[in-house]
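Crash report, auto-generated. Payload:
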Amino acid sequence: MRSFIDEFAIGAFLLPAELEMLQSGIISKHVAKGQVLLKKGELYGKTYFVKQGCLRSYSVDEKGKEHIFMFAPEGWIISANESLLPNTPAELYIDAIEASEIEVFDREFMARFEESPTVPRPVFAKLVKRMAVLQRRIIMLMSATALERYQDFLATYPEMAQRVPQKMIASYLGITPEALSKIRRGLAKGHH
Amino acid sequence: MRSFIDEFAIGAFLLPAELEMLQSGIISKHVAKGQVLLKKGELYGKTYFVKQGCLRSYSVDEKGKEHIFMFAPEGWIISANESLLPNTPAELYIDAIEASEIEVFDREFMARFEESPTVPRPVFAKLVKRMAVLQRRIIMLMSATALERYQDFLATYPEMAQRVPQKMIASYLGITPEALSKIRRGLAKGHH
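Recovered output after restart:
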């Protein structure tokens, strides 16, 4: 079970005092399956790092229908507001779809992080990787077939197809669970 | 007309030698309206900074229909592959929708940039801002009404509604030009 510090604060670019300062702003937490961490509209959406388990973020439309924005299994960072700015309302709900061990970055952590004139390369690289996922997701939502979107889901989240209920995958893809079943049957038969 | 260096290399965090090294990897270029800079599938998608004018990126679906991913007016950075990795095929087409003055970051620039152990805060901040735009765009595509999507477009791109053909805005929103006209008429009459 790797922590945020394990993944990102490695190497020589942090002094022991800086490392300690970072660590003091991170709170470890256990969350039960189904627990809601954050609701849309709440101010100061915290940021979470997943050590074990899986969180998800989602929106709810006018008709009360859920649309899954992102899954966050082990090693992912998830937040309800990508701008990371304090006092900005959360744009998404976040809850735990499995019992999870997470790290919460508090307000002070983010403030300290923002004061630093440079950002460690591994943190930047993670952000670039996330941006690539977001870009592909938009392209897929705009112009890909449901089959292509499902294949992109499998590439982005290996293993998640086994861990997540089918209806959640369908919600992520923007299709009905029935349409997803049809795609999976087609793939199993090697029709594609 | 501000350059990339004007916007991002300001402040004390770059030595004169580093600044010179960065500048040597940036090529200024004039592009004519309609000029295609990059096609989907081309290797090593370059990254562009817009000094004046406007670029756009888009995908083309199976039926040959264009879907606009992003507009890049003055001060925006645009690339066809958010992973920024060399030798990765471009996921999008990029062309100029106005005569534009741009800066092209070449292969060496990106390599040099990637070797540095830390990233200047303004570059990181720009990336976070872009990520926030991408996140909002996904939420909108998933679950917002066409009116909400149009209002988000206006907030993200002030002035662009006057500069860009209506059919391009409709393509960005994923609606027909007729549906967009209806929304605009409704807003003009103050129905919303």
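Post-recovery validation: Chain B has eight helices and nine strands.
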